[in-house]
Write a structure and sequence with these properties.
The structure is a single chain. With about 500 residues, the protein is an alpha/beta fold. Helices cover about 40% and strands about 20% of the residues. It contains 16 helices and 18 strands. The chain has a six-stranded antiparallel β-barrel. Helix 6 crosses helix 15 and helix 9 crosses helix 11.
Length: about 500
């Protein structure tokens, strides 16, 4: 999953304390890095890049990190007192995510044996504060992890940051292909693509649907046969459907679209894509099944041209690789008013990722009263129960805002007259406040959802991207949330005026 990535570990010190201290710092750092790698809790290998004792050494390692594609971020730790002015030029040049690790080699104070030599060597308590001052003075985005380096909780925090740093690296060359434009007159799915590339790395390109049709026309019967056999192995299919000629025909057409879509995305090097049901000339049916399966493989997806959600889904999927519960593109579909259990049904016409399915999905074919196409194939299921996070990125003109809502997925009911995949959730702290705060913040009707990620992942992402983030959770009140939005507005207006 993350085998091609590294996180560099850089220890801060100085030469004031003599050569023996430098040797000890290096030995301790090597032992810590080995212990972190051997813990089994970190998804990415930590590589020790030595002790830096001068401005020149700091700058050299930061430049090297920038130019190494395997390096997704730097962890810094001040074993001794490392004068922070020597970090200025290197930090000015660093373009990779930064994690400031406030820890200590020894766990406890050796009360009976501690002498001045020990004190000269083990100065993280104030060395890290010196480093913290300069990063604050420089307004350097970073994560601060505090805790003993052998503790599981501390290592888990490093793991979260590593996953986010890797997802950030993945986003820096993320190509998003839009098949067709967005739905006419819709505001929230639009946005500044130039600013998005400058701020978050991803590039958005338009692709005529005719290019996909050309790929589709080259798909062979053998290609389709192979994929249909995969469908039969992975999904539930009713016996009567397997004997229905029209069902088989539409499933084969869905397979044809999937083969073509996967090939064109691969040839273009795209990591995400969008479709629009109003722009599918030459395509037999809406590519619902293909979109569902491609999302499960990690391709970002957004409906109706929603490239921001497609990008965010890819990033959240990338962060959560190897975690067990899954993620999906979703849309607020309809409301269920039921007192304290009032909830929002999440679905879409077809495109919900099977990674969140409670049970083995069913492959079905049904009419769809929109798009003017043949009856599309789709995977039908309800989602797992459990807590998760729903997130969206919106463009406010002068900035991007990441909105995150903690939600609780509850048991859903079958939809016999609406055969689509769905989830049912109660936004925290409750339906009224959660939905109201999302609307006040300008949240979209589309979202990227994950069972595995927590607010911490997205907070780290917003910190690296240097974008606004607001969280709606069990502690949210409408009055305080309104204040937060107003304060944020003032902050960004002043920030723009002063820049």
């Amino acid at each position: 999953m993350f085998d091609n990535y590294e996180v560099w570990f850089v220890t801060g010190a100085q030469l004031l304390y003599g050569g023996d201290a430098v040797i000890a710092v290096d030995a301790h750092s090597n032992e810590m890095v080995k212990g972190l790698n051997d813990s089994g809790r970190l998804p990415i290998k930590v590589v020790y890049k030595g002790t830096v004792n001068s401005s020149k050494e700091v700058t050299t390692v930061m430049r090297a990190a920038n130019n190494d594609d395997k390096c997704v971020g730097i962890i810094t730790w001040m074993h001794t007192f490392s004068p922070a002015k020597m970090w200025i030029h290197g930090l000015q040049e660093l373009r990779k995510p930064l994690c400031h690790f406030h820890t200590q080699f020894n766990k406890e104070i050796p009360w009976d044996t501690m002498d001045m030599d020990f004190m000269n060597l083990n100065q993280s308590a104030h060395g890290d504060r010196e480093f913290g001052h300069i990063t604050a003075r420089m307004r350097k985005p970073r994560k601060v992890v505090v805790g003993y380096w052998k503790d599981a909780e501390t290592q888990n925090k490093l793991s979260v940051w590593m996953r986010v740093a890797a997802a950030w690296a993945d986003a820096q060359d993320m190509l998003i292909i839009r098949f067709g434009d967005q739905m006419n007159n819709v505001a929230v799915t639009d946005g500044d693509k130039v600013e998005a590339e400058m701020r978050m790395g991803y590039h958005v390109d338009y692709c005529p649907i005719a290019e996909l049709v050309a790929y589709q026309n080259k798909v062979t019967d053998e290609d389709i046969d192979e994929l249909v056999e995969t469908y039969k192995k992975e999904y539930e299919i009713a016996n009567e459907d397997l004997e229905n000629r029209e069902f088989i025909h539409q499933v084969r057409e869905a397979a044809r679209i999937e083969v073509a879509l996967r090939r064109i995305l691969k040839d273009k090097g795209a990591k995400a894509f969008t479709t629009h049901f109003d722009n599918l000339k030459g395509i037999n049916q809406l590519p619902g099944l293909a979109s569902q399966r491609l999302m499960a493989e990690g391709y970002g997806f957004g409906a109706e041209g929603d490239w921001k959600t497609a990008a965010l889904y890819r990033t959240m999927w990338f962060m959560g690789q190897g975690l067990p519960k899954g993620c999906s593109f979703l849309e607020d579909y309809t409301l269920n008013f039921d007192g304290e259990n009032s909830a929002i049904l999440q679905s879409h016409m077809l495109e919900v990722c099977p990674l969140i399915a409670e049970q083995k999905p069913r492959l079905e074919v049904h009419p769809l009263g929109i798009g003017g196409k043949n009856d599309p194939a789709r995977l039908v299921f309800t989602s797992k129960e459990g807590e998760g996070v729903a997130a969206t990125v919106i463009d406010l003109g002068n900035r991007f805002r990441l909105i995150v809502n903690k939600v609780d997925c509850i048991k859903s009911k079958p939809l016999p007259k609406l055969p689509v995949a769905s989830a049912l959730w109660i936004p925290r702290p409750n339906f009224e406040v959660g939905a109201g705060a999302w609307i006040l913040a300008g949240g979209t009707h589309h979202s990227s959802f994950s069972y595995d990620l927590t607010v911490e992942y997205l907070e780290d992402y917003a910190e690296i991207a240097d974008i606004e983030m607001v969280v709606i959770d069990e502690n949210t009140t409408m009055s305080e949330f309104k204040k937060e939005l107003r304060i944020n507005e003032v902050y960004y207006m002043l920030n723009k005026a002063l820049s």
